[in-house]
Amino acid sequence: MVRIFGILAGLGFVFVAFWSLLWGTIEYLGAEHHESAEHRFHEHPKNYSFASDGPFGRFDERQLQRGFQVYREVCAGCHSLNYVAFRNLAEIGYNEAEIRKIASEFQVPDVNPQTGEPNTRPGLPADRFPSPYANVTAARAANNNAVPPDLSLIVKARHGGADYITSLLTGYRNPATYRNHEGEALPADNRPGQNLYFNPYFPNLNLAMPPPITSEGQVQYQDGTRATVEQMAQDVSAFLTWTAEPNLQRRHRSGLAVVLFLLAATIFSWFAYKNVWATAKRAVRVTGPLDPENMAKTDAAKRDAGIAG
C-alpha cells in the first residue's frame, strides 16, 4: 500500500511539472517580445589588431611600456594592480634602476615598527602595485558609491578582452545625439542619471567611470609616438593583456614545441609501422571440432571412457 501511494505521489509530481512546463511554453510563445533598450543600443567591441593576438602572438615591448605609462598617469589614480609586483616590470624591458625609481613613486601600506601604527612608505621592487584607496568604503566615498575594479585580470574577466577595453575607453558618446545602427534615438528613460556616463559598449549602457582618456596628447610618450585617444587606449589595453597573462609568450613557445614534437612522433610512428608490420602476414589456423587432430583426441577419450561411437 505504501508503495502504491509513493507511485501515485510521484506521478502527481511528474504531471504537475509537465503541466507547468507546457503552460509556461504556451504563454511564452503567445506573448509579445520586445527588445530592451540595452539590447538595441549595445555595441559589440570593435576588432583591433594586437601584437599578442593569434597562436604566434608576441608582446610589443615598446607598446607595453607606453601602456604602462598610460596606466600610471591616467588609471592608477582609481584602479589598482594587486597581482602585479614592481619587479615584474623587468619582463617588459625596464632595468633595475628604473624599477626602483618607479616603485619609490608609489606609497604602499606598512606598519611603523616602533609604534605598531599603520602608515605608508615608498614602494620597493618586491611590493605589489598598491590600491589608491585604503579600503572599499573609501573607494565608494571617492567614486559616488562605485568601486573601481582591480585591473590585474580585467582583460580575462571581460568578454572581448583587449578589444572590449579599447572600445570602452574610446566609446563614450553624447546620449542626447547618439543614434544606433537603425537611426533610433536613445530613450529618455535609458539616458544616464546623475554621476553616470553613456557608453554603448558597456552592457548596461551607463557606467560610473567618467571618460579617462579625453584628448590627444593627454600622455606625452617618451618614445615620440603620437598619443591619440585610440593609440593610448590600445596601448593600455595591451599592457593589461600582459598583466592578465604575463606567460603568454612562453605558453605560445611551449605549444609550438609540443605540436612539432607530436607531428614528428606521428611521422616516425608511421614509418616504423610501414617498416616493421606492413609486410607481416597474419597466420590464421582453422581449428574446431572437425579438425583431424581434435577428432583423433575425441576418439581416444571416448575409447578410454568406454563410450561407443
The CATH class name of the largest domain reads: Mainly Alpha
Order of helices and strands: HHHHEEHHHEEHHH
Distance between the termini: 63 Å
As residue ranges, the low-confidence spans are none
Question: What is the count of β-strands?
Answer: 4
Q: What would CATH call the architecture of the largest domain?
A: Orthogonal Bundle
Whole-number total of structural domains: 3
Strand content: under 5%
Structural class comes to: mainly alpha
Task: Give helix % range.
Answer: 40-55%
Give the strand line-up of the largest sheet: 1-2
Radius of gyration, taken over Cα atoms and rounded to an integer in Å: 35 Å
The number of distinct helices, counting runs of at least 4 residues, comes to 10
* CATH H-tier superfamily of the largest domain: Cytochrome c-like domain
CATH topology of the largest domain: Cytochrome Bc1 Complex, Chain D, domain 2
Mean pLDDT score, rounded? 88
